[in-house]
Design brief:
about 280 residues; alpha+beta; five-stranded mixed beta sheet; 6 helices; binds zinc ion
Length: about 280
């Protein structure tokens, strides 16, 4: 599932191709990807120029020159790519937006999502899409993270996946961050020491920045707006490495299920008894 680094990479590859360009055609193949249902998307988009493409959490927020905004969520298998109009349409392409390219040919932005957990949310001019979304992890302060974690007894793994507590993290980057911080995934969120919270906030930022530099992780479907796969999956230390030796201590990485999500950790480097 695309998480913050993958969505950030899509935004960075989409932005230069989209900002300042005018939307000339909209084809919605599957109206049920649209929220609110029945929104006249073509009516809102036709003739408008795109003024910005930003990321908020795992959302791709697009603003138009009339201040209206909408966002795309990639869900599990979503792809938002820029292609030439002549390229064959892949199956599960639900939305095609034609955009003018003054100096070059016309381009198409295509939203494809085989499993359809993603979609397009119309925000209008007043909706922020921010409601109930936690702070951005790249800018969170350790004290701010600590205050939010202190409110819940849930396992730290489950707490960090909660988008209302902190935005943008998913299974891969929570596992990698907890490994880097040396914190067992089942530790109760409200039992972390201030030192652990500081280490965790730093680990999250380090892992996310590094993953963005490597253009995210491609496990199966993820592609950036140019259709390129990411490279960070080769650098995972624990995620999806159950049974393989820990890169720090050679103890086999273990897997358990927390809140229904598969979780990977080193039982030695992330010992629950470890003093910190
Ligand atoms: Zn280890």
């Amino acid at each position: 599932m695309p998480e913050l680094p993958e969505v950030e990479t899509v935004v960075r590859t989409l932005r230069p191709r989209l900002v300042g360009r005018v939307i000339t055609a909209v084809r919605l193949e599957r109206p049920d990807i649209l929220d609110p249902a029945g929104t006249n998307l073509a009516g809102h988009l036709l003739g408008r120029a795109v003024t910005s493409v930003e990321r908020r959490g795992k959302r791709i927020v697009i603003t138009l020159d009339d201040e209206n905004r909408f966002y795309v969520h990639l869900g599990m298998t979503g792809q938002l790519t820029v292609q030439a109009p002549g390229e064959p349409l892949q199956s599960h392409t639900h939305l095609v937006i034609d955009v003018t390219e003054p100096d070059r040919e016309q381009i198409q932005v295509r939203f494809r999502d085989p499993r359809r957990f993603g979609g397009v949310w119309w925000l209008g001019a007043t909706g922020t899409g921010d409601e109930r979304m936690g702070p951005e992890p790249l800018f969170i302060r350790p004290a701010q993270l600590g205050a939010r974690l202190a409110r819940t007894k849930r396992a730290i793994k489950a707490a960090l996946l909660d988008q209302t507590l902190i935005a943008g993290l998913g299974n891969i980057y929570v596992d990698e961050s907890l490994f880097r911080a040396g914190i067992h995934p089942l530790t109760a969120a409200n039992r972390l020491t201030p030192e652990q919270t500081t280490r965790l906030a730093r680990a999250i930022k380090f892992i996310l920045r590094k993953a963005i530099r490597h253009r995210g992780s491609t496990l199966r479907d993820y592609r950036d707006a140019a259709g390129e796969a990411g490279g960070f999956q080769r650098r995972h230390r624990v995620y999806d490495r159950a049974g393989k030796p820990c890169s720090d201590c050679e103890t086999p990485i273990e897997r358990l299920v927390v809140g229904g999500r598969s979780t990977h950790f080193c039982p030695k480097c992330q010992s629950r008894r470890k003093k910190s």
